[in-house]
TrEMBL record:
It comes from the Bacteria. Residues 1-21 are annotated as: Disordered. The keyword Cytoplasm does not apply. This is Poly-beta-hydroxybutyrate polymerase. Residues 25-64, 91-263 form the Poly-beta-hydroxybutyrate polymerase N-terminal domain.
């Protein structure tokens, strides 16, 4: 067995030899791209120009499209056909009843009609590349949203009412909020998540506080084992694999929001991977490194500590994608059963696989795909070549732009125009606790998964062998969220086409994070869940949605019952504390900045 690595500084581990550029010309090209990326926010100007040129040239030679745009423009002043109050019901910016009063109703209607014009202008035109069409539409809608009446103090009835009620103090408080956010950003923190604001939620005390021990550490991750909540635990342990995009404690926030705490209370023996936050020295760590030295090593350690029983493995976001790759790799090794001792260790390692908001088919990645094409990836690679990683702050800007209506413009109105007092939550603190990603890992994921969709097409190779999700035989539970801008639920649903054994699919309310962290008793939560037995006919997403009733509750109890059904039903005495712990949970890696 592999002995725990207690090296105090993972960046001192000898890295993989750096990837060399093939010529001086390559070096020169990448340096020029990196310099340009510094002034464009890491956005490829070539990608943007190509999208607009493609759209403009085809639009100029499409008279039918031009006629439809003219009709939409002419309808801007036409009386609305919808019932009074309906537009603001479907657009969250205009939900307040005060928007139904003149002149605000008139401003709202003109803006919504202007959206229709923009949507018609940037809609389907014969010959336009779909990716270019989507980029143009996204950019046009972003510019239009700047001029939404909800973002103008003089055109927003909610802001005007607040000015009257507070004699303008809301704008003074909003200015103070803006100045506070500016200071946070200048200090390297996210707006509203500076050191003072985060004091109420300290990692290891108020969040990431479920008692446990660090039982293994190497250059890639720490393995946490949590103290049992009962004298007996279920025989099969649970291993959680978080994404390397985020700190693991999104699944261990305050006690009432902690999925880890819930599983422990239900009698499970829970392990968690806590990824190391890499620096420039880790620039050449790639996807296969994270699989072999990360996930598969963690799985072996969990089995070593629990008597080599099968493990319930659960992966979140890209951690789920990594888990799917790992499960397929193990399935192939099991079927071939070579003589190597490592493969005998891995035999029958999994009792089940759970994927939380994790894509495996990236052909339709949603709005995130707008930022991924050959040109854009080249610019990102040039930027990462210069610094050795991509930072969490650089990624956060992209994710905020994808959901700008809720994360940017609603914040503008709520914080700066209405002067709403700042509220720091466990989610706020976690969201501001960003991570870095090694350059090679990020590049390989962008090219192999997003650009080439290699996992879904069977062209991804691990150790010289293809990875096929159809090789997986253990039961699978897949969770998607209704309002996910990162892993759209219809994209997650495509697992039905790639995996042929028993598949339980759950669609839950909320977005990428809030939908997953949805504890029992959560207000207004609901979920749909159904199982497709092995060999059953495929149902398209809409048919599945229409046939599956919504249940008003958290999805956690349904998943926990499913875990028990996939296990042996046996319990064992909880052995605690572990024999040779390295540290107390949450360990040291989660504290790295």
């Amino acid at each position: 067995m592999t002995a725990p690595d207690t090296s105090p500084s993972p960046d001192t581990v000898a890295p993989t030899p750096p990837t060399s550029l093939t010529s001086f010309a390559d070096h020169l090209d990448r340096a020029a791209m990196a310099a340009t990326a510094r002034f464009t926010g890491n956005v490829s100007p070539a990608a943007v120009a190509l999208a607009w040129a493609d759209w403009a040239m085809h639009a100029a030679t499409a008279p039918g499209h031009q006629l439809n745009v003219f009709k939409a423009f002419a309808a801007i002043d036409r009386p609305a056909a919808a019932k009074a109050g309906e537009p603001h019901a479907v657009d969250r910016r205009f939900r307040d009843p005060s928007w139904d009063q003149l002149p605000f109703a008139w401003l709202r209607e003109r803006f919504l009609r202007a959206q229709d014009v923009v949507d018609e202008m940037t809609g389907d035109i014969p010959g336009v590349e779909p990716h270019h069409r989507d980029v143009v539409r996204f950019m046009a809608r972003q510019w239009l949203d700047v001029f939404s009446p909800s973002n103008q103090w003089w055109a927003n009835p909610e802001v005007l009412a607040a000015i009257r009620e507070t004699q303008g103090r809301n704008l003074v408080k909003g200015a103070q909020r803006w100045w506070s956010d500016a200071r946070d950003m200048a200090g390297g923190s996210a707006p509203g998540a500076g050191p003072e604001a985060c004091k109420a939620f300290r990692v290891g005390h108020d969040i990431a506080a479920t008692p446990g021990k660090v039982v293994y550490r190497n250059a890639y991750f720490e393995l946490l084992q949590y103290a049992p909540g009962q004298a007996q635990t279920w025989r099969e342990p649970v291993l959680i694999v978080p994404s390397w995009l985020l700190k693991y404690y999104i699944l261990d926030l305050e006690a009432q929001h902690s999925l880890v705490g819930y599983l422990v209370a239900q009698g499970h023996n829970v392990f968690m991977m806590s990824w190391h936050n890499p620096g420039p020295h880790a620039r050449d760590r790639g996807l296969e490194d994270y699989l072999e030295s990360g996930l598969l090593t963690a799985l072996r350690e969990v089995r070593r500590l629990t008597g080599n029983v099968p493990v319930h493995a659960c992966g979140y976001c890209l951690g789920g994608t990594l888990l799917a790759i790992g499960a397929a790799t193990l399935a192939r090794r099991d079927s071939e059963r070579p003589a190597r001792s490592r493969d005998r260790e891995d035999a029958n390692a999994l009792a089940s696989v759970t994927l939380l908001a994790a894509q495996t088919d990236f052909s339709e990645p949603g709005e995130l795909g707008l930022f991924i094409d050959a040109s854009q990836v080249a610019y990102l690679e040039a930027m990462m070549w210069r610094q050795g990683f991509i930072s969490g702050e650089q990624l956060a800007g992209t994710f905020q732009l994808l959901n700008s209506r809720d994360l940017i413009w609603s914040r503008l109105m709520r914080d700066y125009l209405l002067g709403t007092p700042a509220q720091t939550t466990d989610f706020t603190v976690w969201n501001a606790d960003t991570t870095r990603i090694p350059a090679r890992l990020h590049s390989e994921c962008l090219r192999a998964l997003y650009l080439n969709n290699a996992l879904a097409t069977g062209s991804l190779n691990i150790g010289g062998q293809p990875v096929a999700l159809s090789d997986i035989r253990v039961p699978m539970f897949v969770v998607a969220t209704e309002r996910d801008h990162i892993s759209p639920w219809r994209s997650v649903y495509k697992m039905h086409l790639l995996y042929h054994a028993d598949l339980t699919f759950a669609l839950v309310s909320g977005g990428h994070n809030v939908g997953v962290v949805c504890e029992p008793g959560h207000a207004r939560s609901h979920h749909r869940v159904a199982t497709r037995a092995a060999g059953a006919a495929y149902r398209d997403p809409q048919t599945w949605y229409d046939a599956t009733p919504a249940m008003q509750s958290s999805w956690w109890p349904a998943w926990q019952a499913w875990l028990l059904a996939q296990g042996s039903g046996k319990s064992v005495a909880a052995a605690w504390p572990p024999a040779k712990p390295l540290d107390d949970a949450p360990g040291t890696y989660v504290l790295e900045r």
